[in-house]
Amino acid sequence: MSPRRLTVEGLRLAARRDGRPLELVRGVDLALERGRVTALVGASGSGKSLTCLGLQGLTPPGVERLAGRVRLDGAAVGPETLPGRLVATVMQNPRSAFNPVLTMRAHARETLAVRGVTDDVDGRLAGALAEVGLPEPGRVARLHPFEMSGGMLQRMMIALALLADVPFLLADEPTTDLDPPAQARILALIERLAAERGLGVLIVTHDMGVVARLADEVSVMEAGRIVETAPVADLFAAPRSGAARALLAAHRALYPEEFA
Amino acid sequence: MTVLLAAEAVEKRYRGPGAFGGGPARTVLRGVSLSVREGESVALLGASGSGKSTLARLMLGLDRPDGGTVRCLGRPLDGLDAAGRRTFRRTVQAVFQDPLGAVNPRHPVGRIIAEPLRHLTGLDRQGREARVAELLRLVGLEPEDAGRLPGGLSGGQVQRVCIARALAPQPRLILLDEAVSNLDLVLQIQILDLLAGLRERLGTAFLFITHDVRLVRRFCGRVAVLHEGELVEDRPAGPTLAFDHPAARALLEAVLPAAPSAARPSR
Question: Most A CBs within 10 Å: which of B191, B256, B266, as the mutation test of the A interface?
Fold first, then answer.
């Protein structure tokens, strides 16, 4: 049976600066639940993206994992077992996540192979492309990354997540580089997949508009720590942390009509 | 008010696909006219692929139109002599989206910001250092940051260095091509507030290329919308923004909500 709940406890990550460890993620707890969208928000450099990587046991060069326990339905697992099997990732710059010399069909084949699936690649890919709203699957299957727009690649990333058939999706600023109509389509797609396929989603963003649109729960990060976790309506109505209040103030400055 | 920069019925085509460009040429801009006057803040809005950045490149003289003219202070960019090009560079500065790609990673911040001062102003070394310190403070960095290398700064800090460099020769117009979209919203608003302040104090004009309608409503006095290479809107902007063209309305309707919907179904 596939797990319902993914948690990380006490995640600590540090970079080495001048020989000394500099802690960038300082004891983060997060919980993802099937069918629900959790937003991880915070200013640039607060440690959101590192947390997203670190909870899957992935760290950029020069960053080490000091501590952190990952659990699936309460049972401890190694974080390295997550990527591709339990967790799929969508990133801000989808282009860098694709192999430039491989077609979309080859990417689909690789993704399915991780699950041990080798038959009916074209049929499965066509199904996933239809679900994310990319028409003409036969044509898309033959495309290379450079022949596709950012919005198409972002949808393709989500299609690959569907092919991986994972219960959890980590989306790190998935719409930051997209124009508003493309952004709206991706957010609607993520919302639908959470509702219909029971995907548990962690969405990393600095945009409280994305949070308002999509999130059920919100965790606010500041200087490597989670300073507040609340249901989305509560956070917007009564933020408790300074970090949340600053994010909301900036957000509301962009809606002169509503908050005049 | 003086027209600082104007595109007049510009056309741009890119050659077709294939090694020799034998395929059909693609028209990216069709008869686009857009001008920016002294002290104006104009937004250029459009979906991805609408031709915004191509128009920016033409207006900065980085690329030549296939038809039409770009003029700075009334003079066509095409016919500028060396002195004319210097005047153009001093009048119009630009900031682009990818800050790390726009600076020399081996040059310290102070040298990066002083670059246009060396080429475009008569300031001596001391004068340049004083101006660099002033500019660093203006964009929310410290004068001591002048000695740091771009690699040691965050993306947002490097972008502020690029903005300081654009401000350095006191241009009359700054073109910002998605220049803040990689920054977090708090920082975006801080920088745009800073630019709005400069506009009030010094009359610096802005051409602000973006796809975030929310920023346009807050910061721009006029908005032009590009759609598939054609200018489909050019009108005053403000807190209450409305469009007639369907493509422009689609941009407005896709604006993210201000608050979570009370009617959100519980999952």
Answer: B256
The pLDDT confidence band at residue B190, using thresholds 50, 70 and 90, is confident
**b (16+ CB within 10 A) / e for B159-190:** bbbbbbbbbbbbbbbbbbbbbbbbbbbbbbbb
CB contact under 8 A, B181 and A233: no
Considering the domain boundaries, does residue B115 fall inside one?
A: no
Domain of B212, CATH number, reads: 3.40.50.300
Q: Which domain holds residue B231?
A: 3-14+26-102+172-253
Q: Among B137, B139, B134, B129, which Cα is nearest to B108's? A: B129
Q: By percentage, how much of chain A surpasses pLDDT 90? A: 59
Closest CA to B14 of B34, B28, B32, B30: B28
Whether B17 and chain A come into contact, CB under 8 Å, resolves to no
Task: Give domain A32-58+78-253's CATH architecture.
Answer: 3-Layer(aba) Sandwich (3.40)
Global confidence as pTM: 0.84
In a domain, B142, yes or no: no
Q: In A, which residues are within 8 Å of B259 by CB distance?
A: 212, 236, 258
pLDDT at B21: 58
Q: Which residues of chain A have pLDDT under 70?
A: 1, 259-260
Measured distance CA(B88)–CA(B104) in Å, rounded: 23
Q: Is B18 on the interface with A (CB under 8 A)?
A: no
Residues 6+ apart with CB under 8 A from B175: B56, B59, B60, B92, B93, B94, B95, B206, B207, B209
Sheet containing strand B230-236, strands side by side: B92-95, B173-177, B205-210, B41-45, B222-227, B230-236
